[in-house]
Amino acid sequence: MSDTPLINLQELQLAARNHALPLEALRWDVTPIGLHYLLTHFDIPEVDASSWRLEIGGLVEAPLSLSLDDLRARSAVEAVVTMECAGNGRVHLEPHVVSQPWLLEAVGTARWRGVSVAELLDEAGVRDGATDVLLTGLDRGVEGDEEQAYERSLPVETLMEGHALLAYEMNGVALPPQHGFPLRLVVPGWYGMTSVKWLARLTLRDEPFDGYQMSHSYRVRQEEHEAGDPITRIAPRSLLVPPGIPEFLTRSRVVEPGPCELVGRAWSGAAEIVEVDVSVDGGATWAGAELGPAALGRWAWRSWFFEWDAQPGEYELCCRARDAAGNEQPLRPSWNLGGYVNNAVQRVAVTVSA
């Protein structure tokens, strides 16, 4: 056995700052705030809401400077959105990728309330030639030997589709500090790194932003020198609530024999979920699960149910989602340098007692 630990000290520091969704919390339609996954790149900034302002400038006809009260006074929009980290599943890749060691639980679903990004851009007046919006957060740090604010850009057309919002509330309360108080972007269907927290500025540009978080991070590539492909919409995924009871250290499951209802959630950023299959033999055979209603809206996960007649023995449970665009979870992951977009099927070891 190798003497090299799977998780090094730097990764442990990241894991202590960030947290994942306990899989049993998939039972909630909307994730309680304290259980929603959380990734903070740098430090949580201290923001004085009374002096904070959102600036919208660059290639616009009428730059805007808005206080939190200004935003709250406007017509509000709400959306229930499932958000997932692009690195979810990273720890299952081989060879090991050194970064935030996500298993499969870097996900959560929240009810966000705020203002429409498209309406604000319309009010500011996007000038001809503006193609991209630079989104600047108040959190700062060093990554890749470069001091930087956390910044990403999005095409103007993506924000003008009307789904994105600037959120000041989460699950009916003021945005918590760790989730971006006083304001954050929420882009439904896109991986979480897109939804910039502690938002300070929107700057309209005539070219894409080439800062670190766009040109280096969040790109799928095999080698350091490659440009790679940018990560955008969430790939389909289904997660199962592990049945029975856990063994403390290994988290392996023990289930009593007899009828056992398996339940879970499935989501995709590209298209609606249309099918979930379940396997109790490690993916050798599959059977269709029953989908719950899409009551939370297009951008939220969907529940599913499967009746299993659990007989004594050892099992490996799997679930696999498929969306309306034909995207389906693979049985095995594909490696990439950053450990991104690993949506291979979940595997849960279960012992059914005699």
CATH class assignment of the largest domain: Alpha Beta
Taking all residues together, what is the mean pLDDT? 96
Distance between the first and last residues' Cα: 33 Å
State the order of secondary-structure elements, H for helix, E for strand: HEEHEEHEEHEEEEHEEEEEEEEEEEE
Major sheet size, sense and barrel closure: 6 strands, mixed
CATH architecture of the largest domain: Alpha-Beta Complex
The CATH homologous superfamily of the largest domain is named: Oxidoreductase, molybdopterin-binding domain
Principal-axis shape equals globular
Structural classification: mainly beta
* Number of helical regions: 5
- Estimate nothing, just give the exact number of structural domains: 2
The strand line-up of the biggest sheet is 14-15-22-21-17-18
**Proportion of residues in β-strands:** 35-45%
CATH fold label of the largest domain: Sulfite Oxidase, Chain A, domain 2
User: Rg from C-alpha positions?
Assistant: 21 Å
Number of strands: 22
Descriptive keywords:
6-stranded mixed beta sheet; 22 strands; globular; mainly beta; Immunoglobulin-like; Sulfite Oxidase, Chain A, domain 2; 5-stranded mixed beta sheet; 354 residues
